[in-house]
């Protein structure tokens, strides 16, 4: 666990986003043109599903390239708010208040902030972002899986994010966000999977505030 925490402490910019985001069943993805044509409408559907989430809470499991694993709870509230609450014993908190993504390390009393649009997570969190402008469908061999890749070619430093959805009736947009994967500008990749997703919960805005370890002021 100490190795994972040390890695998180050394992340900056797009690399931070890569450590937070989740991977999908990559083996189910393929570059077959026929599969892309068969799912031609799914890009719009997937973006619609993202925007249809009002609130969501889910368990997450994050695994780094060395196989080190951390767990926690993710809370999402649109527009633009997210919280990654790690398991007990991990002094790291990641939270977005709708404007900036903040990385708080209570172990060393450090706080770092980035505009949400400057990371792959901006595709999920930025309500003003035009996801369709930068997204493309990632064909899948399994018809129940929909993947979309989002990258801004003008800003390769932001990295790449691939969202993975599973078709499921009764969830916002009919597609459940099950995971996503990012690769940063240093080709760093981290895997986290979502489970036990719950929608439409009452989530107060105070969820996305944090105790600033640099002072006694609550932000």
What does this structure look like?
With 219 residues, the chain is of the alpha+beta class. It has a single domain, classed as Lipoprotein localisation LolA/LolB/LppX (outer membrane lipoprotein receptor (LolB), chain A). 18% of the residues lie in helices and 37% in strands. The chain is built from six helices and eleven strands. An eleven-stranded antiparallel β-sheet has the order 6-5-4-3-2-1-11-10-9-8-7. A hairpin with a 5-residue loop joins β1 and β2 (69-77). The longest helix is centred in the N-terminal third of the chain and has 11 residues, at 42-52. The protein is globular. Mean pLDDT is 77; it is low at 10-39.
Fraction of helical residues = 10-25%
Strand order of the largest sheet: 6-5-4-3-2-1-11-10-9-8-7
Strand content: 35-45%
So, the CATH homologous superfamily?
A: Lipoprotein localisation LolA/LolB/LppX
Rg from C-alpha positions?
17 Å
Number of strands: 11
From the 3D structure, determine the CATH topology.
outer membrane lipoprotein receptor (LolB), chain A
Helix and strand sequence? HHHHEEEEEEHHEEEEE
| Number of helical regions | 6
Q: Strand count, sense and closure of the main sheet?
A: 11 strands, antiparallel
What do the pLDDT scores average to?
77
Coarse structural class: alpha+beta
Give the overall silhouette: globular
Q: Label the CATH architecture.
A: Clam
Give the count of structural domains: 1
CATH class identity: Mainly Beta
The CA-CA distance between the termini, in Å, is: 28 Å
Which spans of ≥5 residues are poorly predicted at pLDDT below 50? 10-39
């Amino acid at each position: 666990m100490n190795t994972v925490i040390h890695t998180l402490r050394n992340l900056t910019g797009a690399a931070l986003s890569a450590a937070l985001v989740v991977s999908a069943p990559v083996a189910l993805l393929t570059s077959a043109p026929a599969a892309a044509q068969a799912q031609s409408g799914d890009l719009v559907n997937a973006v619609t599903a993202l925007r249809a989430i009002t609130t969501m809470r889910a368990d997450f499991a994050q695994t780094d390239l060395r196989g080190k694993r951390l767990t926690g709870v993710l809370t999402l509230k649109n527009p633009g708010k997210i919280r990654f609450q790690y398991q007990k014993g991990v002094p790291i908190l990641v939270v977005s208040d709708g404007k900036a993504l903040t990385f708080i390390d209570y172990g060393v009393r450090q706080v770092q902030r980035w505009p949400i649009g400057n990371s792959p997570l901006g595709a999920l969190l930025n309500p003003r972002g035009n996801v369709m402008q930068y997204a493309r469908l990632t064909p899948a061999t399994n018809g129940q899986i929909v993947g979309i890749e989002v990258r801004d070619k003008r800003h390769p430093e932001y990295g790449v994010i691939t969202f993975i959805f599973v078709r499921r009736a009764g969830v916002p947009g009919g597609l459940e966000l099950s995971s996503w994967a990012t690769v940063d500008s240093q080709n760093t990749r981290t895997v986290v999977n979502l489970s036990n997703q719950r929608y439409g919960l009452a989530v107060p805005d105070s969820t996305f505030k944090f105790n600033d370890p640099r002072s006694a002021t609550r932000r």
